# Entry
Amino acid sequence: MGKTVPDLEMIMKAQTTKYEELGKILQTNKLAVLLEIVVVFLPFMLGLILSDRLGNDRISLGGNLFILGGSITYLGLAITLVLLWILTRKRGASWQYFGLIRPKSWFITLLQSLGIALAVFLTVRFIINPTMAALPFSGYQDLSRFDYLEGDIPNLITMLVNIWITAAFLEELLFRGYLMNRIIDLQGRQTKLAWGLALVSQAIVFGLVHAYQSPAGMFKVGLIGMVFGLSYLITGRNLWPVILAHGLIDYLDMISHYFGT
# Structure
């Protein structure tokens, strides 16, 4: 007798079941969650480290125009985003998981972003800066890599465009939208303590990726990351207000560098 031809419908159903089982493992298994976080962030972190060691911190666009951040950093970031997308799809998560939901009102979202930006400004002015000044070992935040913007309109415009893509959108997607929620998955519960640990953990990692700003800069950026993370929770884990606030704050910072202030 000839071999029986496998039933296509049964094969597809079995494959679907295996896919769903894999998704459940990636979503709930603590070891799988931890490994996913490491795998996702490793290329980005290695890119930052290698760029710093090799002095690869600019991509030339011709003449005196360039993008801040080396090719190795952007390659690492690209790999991180691809891995994030693949693994997120594998476990069946949607954009809503990150907080990228369509706002009911963009006007209210804009007001929320202005409130977050104001909260960051007040926190820096009245809490972070005085705290740093009181710590003898803190030193100063090193922002010298942005000095080239002073009086340079073309590079300022390039930087302002780049900010929305890398700093505002991608940093918020990675640290608030992805990392905070995966740390919650890692703990297997959504208690206040669990969210508190997620809040602190993402702020620490956020500070570490800004190592080029000196230890004092990492400390300051980490605390700002705490404000962003808290704002993300207060707005019902809606990422858009935090993205807009992050972009606005960085815009003002880069413009101040342009004027040399």
Observations:
- Residues 96-261 form one domain.
- The chain has two domains: 12-93, 96-261.
